[in-house]
Write a structure and sequence with these properties.
347 residues, alpha/beta, three-stranded antiparallel beta sheet
Amino acid sequence: MAAANALTIRRPDDWHVHLRDGAVLAAVAPLTARQFARAVVMPNLVPPVTSVAVARAYRKRILDAVGTEAGFTPLMTCYLTDTADADEIARGFEETVFAAVKLYPAHATTNSDAGVTDIATVHGVLARLEKIGMPLLVHGETVGAGIDVFDREKVFIERTLGPLVEKFPGLKIVFEHITTKEAVDFVRAAPASVAATVTAHHLMINRNAIFEGGIRPHYYCLPIAKREQDRRALRKAAVSGEAKFFLGTDTAPHAVSAKETACGCAGIFTAVNALELYAQVFDEENALDKFEAFASRNGPAFYGLPVNEGTVTLTRAPTPVPTDIKAGSETVRPFLADETLSWRFEG
């Protein structure tokens, strides 16, 4: 059967984005709004988004950056800390300011210094989330001097996430940007209250890419890319059509000057061509018929939101990825910069 040359799906959502602030926000937010109707916005600013007032102000800055004509809805999240106020979080959820709460283990990734140091300290907050039906979004890594960076996700499942699901069986949990076969297997075996997002870059590269021809800082992210067997497991999960897996780019812009330095920042920027990247993967897996479920339907179903009105179309056509995106006085480099993708977003 001939391969399709065009793909039309319901307008999708991105369930995990970093939009930053200031000049970077102004540069990258319109890229996400161009392709997606809604996006779950991470709260790891400096200082982090921990109150309703701060979230409202940040949401306004995002909407100002994309403009009303974009028809874009940012879904704000609350950064979970050891001293989080359950009443404030619940108020934000009731007032539809907060869509979810984000758990960063302390020191696990970018701007996570204010994260949770011991999961037991926030059990009271988690019980409140379970009661009101508010999702918990999890950066699933356990950090420590004795834990191999490639095993952080596996250790987190064993020490934190597994026990958490047992203690709070009704708590809606999104295991974000999963990177391992162990994570895929865990999510599949977990109750229906547990789902996962999958990034485009973890579907496309394994850990070898970081070291190909030398250190490649623009392929460095956290959680770090894993083994080839893990990448293959992620691809099978993403294209399966299973409701537990949905799109979350974890697009994470950093200035080139902050990536190409002695201690480069973790993060891969995919917002420029997000849907084209995913479409290429689904095409390679002969699963374009499953793309709409992954990109447009599974996420809203888990969050209890309606599927978007309208559609977007991608066509099979060579699409060059730009070298850099200007962000004020800095530049941000997209994933696969200067390469050519096989699909094009038409809108």
